[in-house]
Amino acid sequence: MTESSALVAQEMAEAERPGPEPRGSALRRNARWLLLAAAVVFALWLPFGLYPAVAVEILCWALFAVAIDLLLGYVGLMSFGHAAFWGTSAYATGLVAIHWGLPFPLAVLCGALTATVLAVPIGYLAVKRTGIYFAMVTLAFAQMIYVVANKWSSLTGGENGLQSVPRAITDNFYFYYAALPIVFGGLFLAWRIVHSPFGRVLVAIRDNPSRARALGYAVHRYKLMAFMLSAFLAGLGGGLFAMGHRFVSLETLHWTTSGKAVIIVVLGGIGTLWGGPLGAAAIVRLEDWLSFSGFEQIGLVTGGIFVLTVLLFRRGVWGTLFKRR
Amino acid sequence: MLHIEELSASYGEAKVLTSAGLSVAQGEVATLCGRNGAGKTTLLRCVMGLHPGSGKVSLNGTDLRGRKPFERARLGLGWVPDDRGAYATLTVAESLALPPMRSGWSLEQIYEAFPNLYARRGSMSTKLSGGEQQMLALARALRMGSRVLLCDEPTEGLSPLLVQRVGEILRQAKQQGIAVLLVEQNLHFAAEVADSYYLLASGRVQQTSPADKDLLTYLGV
Fold this sequence. Notes:
The complex is a heterodimer.
Chain A: H1 3-16, H2 23-49, H3 52-74, H4 83-99, H5 104-126, H6 131-151, H7 153-156, H8 172-194, H9 197-207, H10 209-214, H11 219-245, H12 255-268, H13 275-292, H14 298-312, H15 316-321
Helix pairs in contact in A: 2-3, 3-8, 3-11, 3-12, 3-13, 4-5, 4-6, 4-11, 5-6, 5-11, 8-11, 9-11, 12-13, 12-14
Chain B: E1 2-11, E2 14-24, E3 29-33, H1 40-48, E4 54-59, E5 62-63, H2 69-75, E6 77-80, H3 92-97, H4 107-113, H5 115-119, H6 130-144, E7 148-152, H7 160-175, E8 179-183, H8 187-193, E9 196-201, E10 204-210, H9 214-218
Parallel strand pairs in B: 3-8, 3-9, 6-7, 7-8
Antiparallel strand pairs in B: 1-2, 1-4, 4-5, 9-10
Family (chain B): Belongs to the ABC transporter superfamily.
Organism (chain B): Rhizocola hellebori
InterPro entries (chain B): AAA+_ATPase, ABC_transporter-like_ATP-bd, ABC_transporter-like_CS, BCAA_Transport_ATP-bd_LivF, P-loop_NTPase
């Protein structure tokens, strides 16, 4: 070993030796744990502070927003057709619960897996495009599924939707706490994906796809995997939504549902992961409050918030408050 | 090692390469010269599969036609782009851990060759200076274990000291049997490291020369 390589080896060993931690990083880690604890306490308190049905709705949209953010924030793909996965999972969950009588966690899992399977052909075709073309391809597929669900009324109930989805836990208050572990599981999965080597490859693909290809990554394959994982998370949210409402409407497949999820993500902060749940809490609570007040043009308010966020806080609430890079 | 035959490429109606051909042997540094817009970068991109082109490209006898860029990378082509390809949201250490194959230089070798990268391994890639970003791009290709490096103007915008450092690294790679196809405007730098020259003009390789001053004289340098 040359003198310089010995020096480098020594320096590397010294760098890896645990030493006094920089004050800033210890503070940041403590702040993260505090934030996590506060979020858990907030989630546990939520049904006491709000109508339990609204609290359940926040959980579902939080998962949906995280699914969209995984794709938009970490792969750079703006899906405008994720309602296809949310709605398909809602229908699949409802049908499984009605016809097979499965307990709700299993029914939700079946729904999420159905959404994931549906994501394979849609994703395979869509990820070959980027930007507006990707958004339009996903939107077109979602609208096709919407039309199929509308016409196939013997299975889906058509415009009347899927009625009387059975649920053993009838009280929304208790159902919230039964659904919470599934939501935490989904959020943990998203966090794990983002912080894994796979997540770093996704970011590399988002930042410079040509470079990622030249490094030896099959970019389309990675995008497809991310698309499927995103569909799975959206499916978890959609399945819980069906069980939470004990009813599945055709609207779950409509493009406005995808649009609402995108607004939630932009408000919370794109590429922040936790901005999604924050945006979901804000938008769902606001919609509930406006509708309770008798205000009918809810879209005007959420649309206005979207415009203001894009113009004034492009990094969203979470991005503005917490994101350092 | 790397053999290119009758490579043609275009951007829409504009033909950039028409039957270009060259070869780079193991442990050889071949410099591709030519004026701006001659198609040097396009040739590298075609070899890497990042730009469509017709013609034959083979690596160690393996025909690369129809192979996607990631397959070419896995076969041993390493691309060091002129924009340096630094990832805005990844640190130096994360960037070095990014390649799926890490059969080339060990992390210790990389940090020994590029002490600046070791010192700044926790920094975001785009916070590095231009020279450090260039080092990172080279380090990433070496870490992958690429057998042929396609270097697109690695000295552009670098200080003389860093240019010298890049030269040392290329010579070190050469000693290990790595072939280098170098696109370079800095012909004085190229003269120091190259074993052979190719002059690209009108979409073709017009002149080939061994490493001597003839080509520099021909180009009026």
